[in-house]
Amino acid sequence: MSLMRSIIRLQPLVSCATSIIRQPVSHGRSANQLLSSRSHDLVKITAVRYYAKKGKKPQKGGKGGGRVEINSSVGSEVTDIEAVRGKMQKALDALKEEYVKNLSLRTSVGSLDSISVQTINGRFPLNHLGQIVMKSPQMYHVNMVGAPQEIPSVLQAIGQSGMNLNPIQEGNTIKVPIPKVTKEHRENLAKKAKTACNKTKDQIRDIRNQAMKEAKKAKSTVSEDTVRLVEKQVQQLTDDFNGNAEKILEAKSKELLK
Q: What pTM does this model have?
């Protein structure tokens, strides 16, 4: 390659020298003058330097660049990768459950069941204190015959559930009218969905940070390459679960705002 470049560089010099030899001395210009002017041109030509083209740097796919195959058998003495995965999956499952139970456009018996009620004896789900019955798609009843003393607490819990519900007491029964879905209610639910997603991502980050701490502590007992591989696997899991949380949020937002 260097030989070819040398030949290419010499071509202008040979052409210029040939033209000087063939060109007759005329118009009062001597051969020395011609050679001087041509030499000036040669300086311009031969001053060009050839540089190797720099290739594009590969784009990094997260920290460490590119995906990493998750292999729990590698670095098991550093941290339990499957346990890390399990904790992150639990956080993601909790997000899905939150969306289904508390962030649905249509209230259901299941969503009322999960309402947490603070009583004198502790906190209990609503269905442990009263019987929930759907009278119509627009009306639910909560029979509080078994615990009438908890009716004030139940009224407060339903009203503060974030489901846009305004319960009404009639004797030992609490009536729960289901309101029409408004644009404002949709937007409010979408904001809560984003908040819940961010909370899940914070939980995933905490799990990741804990695993990274364990990996750093193991540097004195295992090879640096093993520790680095474990860190990459933990980061890969973090990226994957955060990405899944974002996809779930995107789908939920479309459902709520369509």
A: 0.59
